[in-house]
Amino acid sequence: MADRGPKRVLIIDDLHHAPADSDGRAHLLPEFERRFDRIVILGADEFYYEELICANKDDRKSNALWAYDLYRILPFGYLRCEQFVRNWVGLGETKSDELEDKVTQINGLLTQFLRNNLIPQYPWVVMIIRAAGRLTGAAARRKRLLRLPAAGPHYCGPGEVPAEASESTASYAWLESWPTSYTPPRQPNRRATPIVVKSETPYSRRLPLVDLPRVVVGQATESRVYSSLASSPSQAYLPLIGSFSRDFARAAVMRACSR
Amino acid sequence: MEVIGRTRRSLLFGRDRCGKSSLAKRLCADLHARGDVPLLLQGSRLKNVKPERVGRFLESLVEKQYEALKPEMYWQIEARSES
Fold this sequence. Notes:
The complex is a heterodimer. Chain A is of the alpha+beta class.
């Protein structure tokens, strides 16, 4: 029977890098479907919004992707995050008490960043924080974090924030070490001039960085600056940052490790 | 894996750097371990593929990803499984 034999499965990664027009894909997908028993396609969120949500009603009917079962990859919740750390730490560890100690230590570190949803709980973020947690001593952690590759996309960063003007609160003190200037790295095929977005929020003076509303949004496909409809300082902070960069995670980790 | 294994056509979305490519590779390995014959294709490679050249393009992928499996054998897998 068909279900018992081996299946030919096509996995298409990064469909958003495929031909941009849906017509081009409309010709390719039937060819794939004719040749494979199963097809799994992975794509960016933007692609989903542009192709499937924002499309006209008529376009939806003709878009072959509407026939696919849709799934979305979500950030970790606390349980999955802990399980991820446990699995990773458990590689090569034999003593259960040491394992538990390390898991507890790393989860404590992670909680500092993740409890306020300031950083998306995706595996690479967890890995960066986890890498810092492995080292003993602030200097060693800082050194390791500085050596982390910076090749990833930089979504946004603060611009010209005077550090001496910052107010610190207990909750957000670790943000004090935010760099006083930030220049988004030049990336090929992306706009060279940063966009300066001004935003006003009633909670800006209560934030550790008073002038944070001046946010330089880097050249990214998913840069977002949300409207500031916040009801608390933490919520007010989020709209100003939009998407987070690896630099953000690194700066946050460095600060936490030095405490 | 179980959910995706049940559906014939699946579309997964996620933010940048959320692990999509890692998931694709993991899926590939899992399917292979299960006895299936997956083919991993990068979307960027589809830019210059014309519909009439899809067959040749896929054959070149099979040659790259499977050392001991020739393209003609790959296309016969379906016939064997349905017999």
